[in-house]
Amino acid sequence: MSTNQPPQPSADEPSGAPGAAGAGVPDARRRRTILIAVCIALMAVIASVSGLNVAQPDLAVSFGASQSTILWIINIYTLSLAALLLPLGALGDRWGRKPMLLAGLALFGVANVVAGLAPSAEVMLAARLFSGVGAAMIMPITLAVITSTFPKEERGRAIGVWTGVAGGGGILGMFLSAALVDVASWRWLFVLPVALVAVALAMALRSVPNSREKSRHAFDTVGALTSVVAVVALIFVLQEGPERGWTAPVTLLGLAVGVIAAVGFVAWELSRGDAALLDVRLFGERSLAGGSITLLAVFGVQAGIFVVLFPFLQAVLGWSGLLSTLALMPMAVLMMMASGLAPKLAARIGARSTMAAGILLAGVGLALMAAFVSVDGGYLSVLPGMLAMGTGMGLSMTPSTEAITGSLPRGRQGVASALNDVTREFGTALGVALLGALLSSGYRSAIDSRLAGLPRGAADTAREGVANAVGAADGAGAHGRALIHAARESFVDGWQQAMWAGVAVMAVLFLYVVARGPQGGDGTAEGSDDTTDEFRVAASSAR
Questions:
Q1: N or C terminus: which one in the chain shows less Cβ crowding within 10 Å?
Q2: Interatomic CA distance for residues 529 and 539, integer angstroms
Q3: How many helices and strands, by DSSP H and E, does the chain display?
Q4: What gap in Å lies between CA 165 and CA 359, rounded to an integer?
Q5: Which of 165, 21, 147, 17 is CA-nearest to residue 407?
Q6: What is the pTM for the complete model shown?
């Protein structure tokens, strides 16, 4: 792509930093410090995605807010983060990755302080919105710093650490958040991201080098705006569809706006050629398409699993929020360990084989959870499936991320990283919407046949969900135990329906990766080398 020149050094960039023509990379000690700094920054962003989920009742009481308002306080962070990833990642490439990272950390930190002190729901909404903006400045830059700083032979291991934090960090953040809510109050939830930001800011100032792209073309403002509209509308539909109804006017309007904006974005980017924000022609390559589809499906299934697991642990097994989150830690630990192992495995058997093995193992985990889950079996009936799922996800995430970042040249790593992150966010929203809907429909279908002879009021409440049924049991008198039993057994039926759907998704994904997965032998970021950039320039000119 002729617009992508090698990154240019800034005034504060060390002579040995990547980006200076002919210069070397930072030494091993400094590279470790850089990796720690960007992973701490990433952890702050990831932990904030799910942290407030454990404090919904406390927020409602503190602000006197409706459930709809509380959900918007939670979702507006994800919405603004997903919408701005691509344009802010591209701006980071142009303005300099270090300044963008530092500015994002500062904004994110201030917004979280305001959120922790918020006197009203309106202030909290604004603080969460700006937190999302700061997160969108941070998240793509953390990965772009790795891909533009680490030498090729170390890049896979560094990306493995990054993907492990990205995959398991949300679970760890939920656990710490639940602990803080139990021992203190919801306001203490914001101490964790602020502390992480302070550490990351201090380390980034000292260790992270600056690199940026020098482009002959103006910034693609139209592409940036249409991408924001498309992402906001489509994420809104996925978040609000289950709540408002898939055929509600606002849902259909959001879907229409999202699809039109997405089509317009693709058409505009094709017309821009080398000056495009994102060269959509690259999706014709196996690496970019395979990596993106894999991350979309894997993170969708992971998010759907959490939708199913939490009510199972809390409403079916009767566990607290803290204990339920702790129960997910074995899965998170194996996911992080497998993410670190994946680059070594890819070097031996190839990126495509590693991705396929991870997808197959994740599918086996889903099948185990579907086949053996039971009320009487409890946590142990789902633990083997969770462990297999975590390991499989870890093996598939790292080579998928490398496939995406390796498909764009070094000068566009902010865009590549943002594309990776947007794919994950879409997958998460899609998985929650679809697997959550399957769980709900399976539960309602199963419970109707088990409510015969129960009081009508209690039966109607039980149809709304397993947590509602458990809550209504106290007022059902002698029927309370039967109501709880019916709800829990019906939840397991709905669980199995959602899990088997996940197995089907993994099976299709496995066949796709085997047939059309990345062709690189070791999964390294092919597109980040200057020789590959020059090849792409020639290929682009030929087209």
A1: C
A2: 15
A3: 19, 0
A4: 19
A5: 147
A6: 0.79
Residue 158, C-beta contacts closer than 8 angstroms, at least 6 positions apart: 31, 35, 146, 150
- pLDDT above 60: residue 530: no
Question: For position 166, what pLDDT does the model report?
Answer: 83
Answer yes or no: are the C-beta atoms of 112 and 197 closer than 8 Å.
Answer: yes
Nearest to 212 by CA among 16, 20, 41: 20
- 115 near 272, Cβ under 8 Å? no
What would the pLDDT profile of 101-139 be if each residue is shown by its tens digit? 999 999 999 999 999 999 999 999 999 999 999 999 999
∠ at Cα 80 (78, 83), nearest 5°? 105
Cβ atoms of 298 and 398 closer than 8 Å: no
Exposed / middle / buried, residue 46 (Cβ in 10 Å: 0-12, 13-18, 19+): buried
What's the token pair of residue 380?
Answer: 């142990």
Q: With contact defined as beta carbons under 8 Å apart, do 116 and 187 qualify? A: yes
Alpha helices (H) in 118-248, listed in sequence order: 121-149, 152-183, 191-207, 221-244
Query: In the structure encoding, which two tokens stand for residue 242, read together?
Result: 């289950």
Question: What's the Cα-to-Cα distance from 440 to each of 216, 454, 540, rounded to whole Å?
Answer: 52, 21, 48
